[in-house]
């Protein structure tokens, strides 16, 4: 018998765990989660949910006579203190004859006098409605109903473990003994498939539908801007808001301490760096907000879309705002983007592998209410790689505008474009290559 | 022609591409012929033949099957070994690409499943399209 290898060499110098051990580990991990969920669910069901369900559905109603009152003392585990539970001694008729038993009434209290309060209103000999267990007539309760928190806990926590673990186990068994090619062939993971009218489907090439639905004012299409700047602004804003909310809570506490004549030096020491970061957060956010609004909008239009290798396209830059731009540049870039796991983190690395400048302008004077317009021409190289997008890897072409306004930092705005693969070059000589 | 690993109890899979340079144009048919030399005493229970692309580089691997065939019944397996042939039309994309952190590779894989339970895969790379390799930060 041959044991599976721990490591199997893949391509190049990469090593990965052997598939069998990987499958076993994956199945084992998810089995543990599934088992934990089942055990947790069983404990909650048998310990709380089922007894509560039986009280509400199986217990029989009876009229009971109060024959005694008392407090049950319960020691708190790990402590010398006790809690006091009010209890009532009941006499009630059952299907097997009269029965007498203690039933709890109300919640337990930390001290004896508080626990005895609800009992004062109940007099001996008075009658109360109770419910007893027909299978064990000595078990009686004075209240029915559901504890919804407990039911939510029963459903949510074990439910999540069972769903996550169960789906993982099912996935591991579905992949068991199957090659990665077979799994990929069976798996339904459709790639984005770009299509240009008149051309065949292009697997792995993003669709251009969202890039050709906005006509330009001068050229055929207006390109949408990549929203990186907006997300950055939102991120700065959220950070400033949350950080300063924490700062306010700490400052209010410190203020109350000072009003009460106490000085918490540790709290004050924490507040100083917190204050510095909070102020810096607000400054950075306001600066980014002013920069985003003061520079003015940038619009890019293109004469056709999607682009094809060897094609020549006209590109128009429209820059709004006021004041002087020391420089403005319009370029096209190809960026590789790879997403990978590093420990428990998911990271994305980007590298610009090709760049060409379409045009640039110096000392551009902008007047309010007008926009600067500049043109450039992009000749797509005949051997250009097409746009590509898969789950963890992508190749993105974009028009990039770099501007340096006077008195403001440089800004960069990106407008993605799609390049499709060139039309096939099949010729008779190619067909004759068959041995 | 590409050969598999040498002996030491391992099979040898030799693949013959219909083009000597193994560079194909989009939508072009690819015709694959292969020969399998099994170690003495071993027998096959299944063969998988596939044409696929996968990514290499810094990112997690993405893999997509373009053609997949699994032969399991005795007649089909004996018909596909020790020699076999299959042909498939190639798609328009993605093209083979040699980037800095993203690479796209096309390949033919012949995977053999032995009666003993072990399996062996032989991979043979070819190019779809003629895209030059990326050069760091190239500015034109």
Q: Give the integer mean of the pLDDT values of chain A.
A: 84
The mean pLDDT of chain B is 87
Give the CATH architecture of the largest domain in chain A: Sandwich
CATH class of chain B: Mainly Beta
Write down the secondary-structure element order of chain B: EEEEEHEEEEE
Question: From the alpha-carbon coordinates, what is the Rg of chain B to the nearest angstrom?
Answer: 17 Å
Radius of gyration of chain A: 36 Å
Strand content of chain B: over 45%
Order of helices and strands of chain A: EEHEEEHEEHHEEEHHEEEEEEEEH
Number of helices of chain B: 1
Number of strands of chain B: 10
How much of the polypeptide of chain A forms β-strand, as a percent range? 25-35%
For the sheet with most strands of chain A, the description reads: 5 strands, antiparallel
Low-confidence stretches of chain B: 1-6
The strands making up the biggest β-sheet of chain A line up spatially as: 5-4-3-6-7
Write the layout of secondary structure elements.
The complex is a heterodimer of chains A (435) and B (140).
Chain A: E1 7-9, E2 15-17, H1 19-57, E3 60-75, E4 82-94, E5 97-104, H2 112-120, E6 127-133, E7 136-141, H3 148-175, H4 180-186, E8 193-194, E9 202-203, E10 221-223, H5 228-259, H6 265-294, E11 298-302, E12 312-319, E13 323-342, E14 345-366, E15 372-379, E16 388-389, E17 393-405, E18 411-417, H7 428-431
Antiparallel strand pairs in A: 1-2, 3-4, 3-6, 4-5, 6-7, 8-9, 10-11, 11-12, 12-15, 13-14, 13-17, 16-17, 17-18
Chain B: E1 12-17, E2 23-24, E3 29-37, E4 44-57, E5 63-71, H1 74-80, E6 83-89, E7 97-98, E8 102-114, E9 119-128, E10 138-139
Parallel strand pairs in B: 2-9
Antiparallel strand pairs in B: 1-3, 3-6, 4-5, 4-8, 7-8, 8-9
Structural write-up:
The complex is a heterodimer of chains A (435) and B (140). By secondary structure, chain A is an alpha+beta fold. Chain A has helices at residues 19-57, 112-120, 148-175, 180-186, 228-259, 265-294, 428-431, and strands at residues 7-9, 15-17, 60-75, 82-94, 97-104, 127-133, 136-141, 193-194, 202-203, 221-223, 298-302, 312-319, 323-342, 345-366, 372-379, 388-389, 393-405, 411-417. A 5-stranded antiparallel sheet of chain A has the order 5-4-3-6-7. In chain A, helix 1 (19-57) runs antiparallel to helix 3 (148-175). Chain A starts with 6 loop residues before the first strand and ends with a helix. Mean pLDDT of chain A is 84; it is low at 1-18 and 428-435. By secondary structure, chain B is mainly β. Chain B has a single domain (12-128), classed as Sandwich (Immunoglobulin-like), CATH 2.60.40.640. In chain B, 5% of the residues lie in helices and 53% in strands. Chain B contains 1 helix and 10 strands; from the N terminus they run E-E-E-E-E-H-E-E-E-E-E. In chain B, the strands form 2 sheets. In chain B, strands 2, 4, 5, 7, 8 and 9 form a 6-stranded mixed sheet that branches. In chain B, a hairpin with a 4-residue loop joins strand 8 and strand 9 (119-128). Chain B is globular. Residues 1-6 of chain B have low confidence and may be disordered. At the A-B interface, helix 4, strand 9, strand 13, strand 14 and strand 17 of A face strand 4, strand 5, strand 8, strand 9 and strand 10 of B.
């Amino acid at each position: 018998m041959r044991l599976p290898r721990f490591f199997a060499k893949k391509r190049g110098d990469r090593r990965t765990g052997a598939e069998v051990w990987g499958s076993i580990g994956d199945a084992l991990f998810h089995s543990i989660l599934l088992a934990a969920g089942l055990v947790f669910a069983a404990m909650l069901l048998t310990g709380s949910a089922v007894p509560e369900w039986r009280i509400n559905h199986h217990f029989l109603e009876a009229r009971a006579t109060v024959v005694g009152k008392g407090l049950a003392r319960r020691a708190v585990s790990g402590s010398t203190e006790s809690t006091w539970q009010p209890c009532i001694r009941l006499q009630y008729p059952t299907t097997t004859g009269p029965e007498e038993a203690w039933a709890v009434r109300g919640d337990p209290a930390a001290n004896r006098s508080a626990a005895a309060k609800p009992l004062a209103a109940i007099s001996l000999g008075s009658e109360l409605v109770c419910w007893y267990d027909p299978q064990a007539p000595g078990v009686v309760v004075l209240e029915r109903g559901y504890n919804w928190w407990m039911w939510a806990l029963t459903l949510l926590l074990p439910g999540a473990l069972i769903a996550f673990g169960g789906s993982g186990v099912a996935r591991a068994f579905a992949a068991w003994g199957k090659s990665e090619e077979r799994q990929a062939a069976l798996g339904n993971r459709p790639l984005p498939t770009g299509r240009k009218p008149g051309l065949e489907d292009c697997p792995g090439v993003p669709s251009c539908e969202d890039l050709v639905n906005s006509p330009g004012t001068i050229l055929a299409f207006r390109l949408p801007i990549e929203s990186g700047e907006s997300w950055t602004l939102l991120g700065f804003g959220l950070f400033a808001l949350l950080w300063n909310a924490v700062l306010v809570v700490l400052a209010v506490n410190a203020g109350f301490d000072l009003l009460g004549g106490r000085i918490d030096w540790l709290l004050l020491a924490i507040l100083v760096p917190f204050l510095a970061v909070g102020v810096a957060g607000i400054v950075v956010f306001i600066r980014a907000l002013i920069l985003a609004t003061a520079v003015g909008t940038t619009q890019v239009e293109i004469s056709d879309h999607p682009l094809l290798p060897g094609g020549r396209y006209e590109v128009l830059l429209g820059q709004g705002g006021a004041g002087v731009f020391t420089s403005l540049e319009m370029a096209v870039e190809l960026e590789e983007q790879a997403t990978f796991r590093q420990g428990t983190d998911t990271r994305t690395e980007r590298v610009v592998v090709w760049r060409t400048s379409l045009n640039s302008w110096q000392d551009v004077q902008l007047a309010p209410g007008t926009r600067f317009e500049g043109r450039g021409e992009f000749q797509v190289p005949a051997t250009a790689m097409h746009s590509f997008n898969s789950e963890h890897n992508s190749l993105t072409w974009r028009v990039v505008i770099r501007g340096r306004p006077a008195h403001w930092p440089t800004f960069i705005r990106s407008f993605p474009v799609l390049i499709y693969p060139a039309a096939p070059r099949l010729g008779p000589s190619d067909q004759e290559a068959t041995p | 022609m590409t050969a598999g690993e040498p002996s030491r109890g391992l099979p040898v899979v030799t693949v013959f591409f219909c083009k000597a340079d193994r560079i194909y144009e989009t939508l072009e048919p690819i015709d694959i012929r292969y020969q399998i030399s099994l170690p003495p005493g071993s027998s096959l229970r299944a063969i998988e033949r596939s044409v696929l692309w996968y990514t290499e580089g810094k990112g997690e691997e993405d893999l997509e099957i373009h053609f997949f065939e699994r032969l399991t019944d005795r007649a089909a397996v004996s018909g596909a070994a020790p020699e076999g042939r299959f042909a498939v039309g190639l798609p328009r994309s993605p093209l083979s690409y040699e980037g800095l952190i993203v690479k796209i590779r096309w390949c033919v894989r012949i995977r053999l499943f032995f009666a003993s339970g072990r399996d062996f895969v032989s991979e043979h790379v070819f190019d779809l399209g003629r895209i030059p390799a990326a050069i760091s930060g190239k500015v034109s």
